[in-house]
Amino acid sequence: MTAQIDLQNIDVTFGNVKAVKDVTLQVEKGDIYGVIGFSGAGKSTLVRTINLLQEPSNGSVSVNGTTLFKNQKLQISKKQLQEKRRKIGMIFQHFNLLNEETVLENVAFALKHAGLNDEELEKRCLHLLDLVGLKDYADHYPAQLSGGQQQRVAIARALANEPDILISDEATSALDPKTTNQILDLLYDLNKKLQLTVVLITHEMDAVKRVANKIAVMENGQIIEKGNLREIYLHPQKELTKQFVGGALEAQHILNTYHLESVSAQDQLYQLVYKINDVTKSVVADLDVALNTKASILYGNVEVLSGEAIGTLAILLKLDSEKQKQAIKFLEEKNVVVTKLDKGVLTDD
Ligand SMILES: Nc1ncnc2c1ncn2[C@@H]1O[C@H](COP(=O)(O)OP(=O)(O)OP(=O)(O)O)[C@@H](O)[C@H]1O
User: Is the CB of 34 under 6 A from ligand 1?
Assistant: First the structure.
C-alpha cells in the first residue's frame, strides 16, 4: 500500500544547523502517528515539510500519491500547492485564533476561498462547531473561552476545508492534564469518524500512548526508532525510547532527587514491561521468592495500549552481575521484557 504521507531522506539545514537529517517517514491513511522527542529534536521542522511550510534542503515529499517536492524543488505549481495545503489541517500549541472575531468568524476565516454564500457558510461553520462540541459558542469571542475550548475552535477551523490529514504541533502542551485528554480523545474520535490521518507532535509520551497507533522517536534531527506503538513499547531499542516508554524518567528522577542512601554504583535499574494477561501474580514477588532479590520498585504503572493492558515497572536490583543475569533470565521466561536502564547521574561505572 502506498503511504498517504511519504517523506524520503529529508534534510533541513538552517545555516550551519542541521535541524533534520536524512529522515524517512511513511504515514498510512488512518494512522495516528505520534512524533515524540525533546525540545529542539527537529519535530516541528520535519512535519512542516509535509505541507512545505518548510522546504527540505534535500529529499522528497509525497502526499496522497502526488510528489510535491523532489530534487530540491517544488514539483507542482504554487496554486496547486495552495490547494494541497488546504487538505492538510494544522493545529498549534497557542491556538492562533483571531481575538477580535467571534468563534464562528474564526472558523469561517478558513473558508473565505470556498465561494459559499452567507447562509451556506454559517451552516458549514455550525456543523464544524458541532463536531468539536461547541455549537452553542458560535457568538462567543476567544477570550471568553477556556484553553481547551479555544483549541476546539482551532480544530474546527483546521477541519473547515475537509482535510484528510491533520497535523497537531504540540496542540495540548498548554493545557492541563484533564483538558489534554479531552482534546486527544476528540482527535481520536475525528480520526475514526472522518478517517482523518493525524500526525501528532509532542514531547509527552502519555499523549502518544493515549491515541496513537504508531510512533517515531526523534533525537538530534533524526528518527532513531519508529513503528507500531505496542511493538516499540514492548521492545524499545534506543536509550531515549526506553526513557519515553516506561517509567525510566520517573525512576531516574527518584534516584537523582532523593539520593537514596543505600544505592551504590553497581546497583542496576531495570525496566520490566509485560502484558497483564501473561502474568497472574506479582512478577517482583515471584522473583524475590525465587532468587531473594529484594528488588526496590521505583515506578509502576498499568495502561491500555491498543486494547491490551500492559504493565510497566522500574526496579532497582542490588545484586552482583551473576545474580542479575539469573534474575533477568527468570523474568524473561515469564514473558517479561527486561531492559537495562541508564541510571542518569548515578551512572559513573
Ligand atoms: N527557522 C529556523 N531558523 C534557524 N534555526 C531553526 C529554525 N527553525 C528551527 N530551527 C532549529 O532547528 C532545530 C530543531 O527545531 P524544531 O523546532 O524543529 O524542534 P522541535 O523538536 O519541534 O522542538 P520544539 O518542541 O522546541 O519546537 C533547533 O535547533 C532549532 O533552533
Answer: no
Taking the model in full, what pTM does it have?
Answer: 0.85
Rounded Cα distance, 301 and 284, in Å:
14
Does residue 43 line the site of ligand 1, with CB under 6 A?
yes
pLDDT in tens, the chain (349 residues): 689 999 999 999 999 999 999 999 999 999 999 999 999 999 999 999 999 999 999 999 999 999 999 999 999 999 999 999 999 999 999 999 999 999 999 999 999 888 899 999 999 999 999 999 999 999 999 999 999 999 999 999 999 999 999 999 999 999 999 999 999 999 999 999 999 999 999 998 889 988 999 999 999 999 999 999 988 888 888 888 887 876 666 777 777 766 665 667 777 888 888 888 776 677 888 888 888 887 888 888 888 776 778 888 888 888 888 888 999 999 999 888 888 876 654 433 3
Q: Is 202 a pocket residue for ligand 1 (Cβ < 6 Å)? A: no
Q: Which grid cell is 17?
A: 544547523
> What was the ipTM of the complex prediction?
0.95
Q: Evaluate: CB of 41 within 6 angstroms of ligand 1.
A: yes
Q: How many residues does the chain have?
A: 349
The C-alpha cell of 242 is what? Answer: 526506553
Compute, in angstroms, the gap from residue 18 CA to the centroid of ligand 1: 10
Which residue has a Cα nearest atom 31 of ligand 1?
40
Domains, the chain? 5-235 (3.40.50.300), 246-340 (3.30.70.260)
Cα(53) to centroid(ligand 1), Å: 13
Exposed, middle or buried by CB within 10 Å (0-12, 13-18, 19+), for 119?
Answer: exposed
